[in-house]
Amino acid sequence: MVREKLNLPDPNEDWECGCVKSHFLDSGAFTIWTKAAEYAKENKTDQWAYYDTPDFYEYLDSYAAFVQKFHYAIDHYANVDAIPNPELTYRNQKYLEQTHGLNPVPVVHYRTSLDWLKRYVDEGYDFIALGGLVGSLTQEHCRGWLDRCFDFLCDNLSRCPRVRIHGFGVTSYELLLRYPWYSVDSTSWTKIGAFGGISVPHQRRGEFVFTEQPYILGVSIDSPKRRERGYHYFTLSSGEKAIVRKWLSDIGVGLGKWKWNPDGTYEVLEYGVVTRHVERRYANLMFYQRMVESMPAYPFPFHLKNRVSIKGFGLI
Questions:
Q1: pTM (2 decimals)?
Q2: Measured between alpha carbons, how far is residue 112 from residues 40, 115, 146, 155 in Å?
Q3: DSSP structure string for 73-85
Q4: Is the dihedral of CA 96, 123, 134, 18 positive or negative?
């Protein structure tokens, strides 16, 4: 997204957000998974029983109707997957295809046999999502599973992926760079901004680089960390502050202006990352945009480095 104007005089004024190039619709599968667990507890059954109820099929039909109604604004949409049940997930995929004529992106979950990934590829799907990754991306076992997924998907001469791969909830910076994703989604950028922080890249020889985990720096004037050395913009050295200001200048985001009152309160004079969450969220989006621009053009080859060995998960 491109934004030309940042320092708005009215915090309730609409933003000039530009155009979204591609829209990927989430199916709400995680919410359904939670509901299935509640259903199992209330009815003393297993959680998969919920996926055979009229209530669940009503959700499937409503989801299909929504996609059809707003098809002009939706480029891709996920299957209503049953986390982490591959059989039910496949059934739902075929239901949406055969009953409603849709083409949802199929989902394969972490810890699922990779034979399911092979099945979707063999059936001709050219866009597949990997899910069930939230909360597991820091685990070596999860990285081993992803290594096997991409090793299979990139088993051609070029080592480039044969199909497009979307990653649900991919927040690990290391894994963002490790694999040739077509797209990913994450809420970390907005959560960091909401809690008063921004992502700042390392500077090497006067240039910002995106091959390393960025700094998560507190900048909010309301942050409880504003007096902790090294954790907040206010406590940085003058040289460190200059790097942060240069980064903000590069992405067109203001620092903000404020005035302290004698009683310890403050007045906002200009909106920026210090004085408002909206600019912080935008700054974090721009960090990832610059990161994408620094990467090789898609598709790029996947070469296994420091491969993690795991057992099981099917033979492919």
A1: 0.84
A2: 22, 8, 11, 20
A3: G-SEEB----TT-
A4: negative
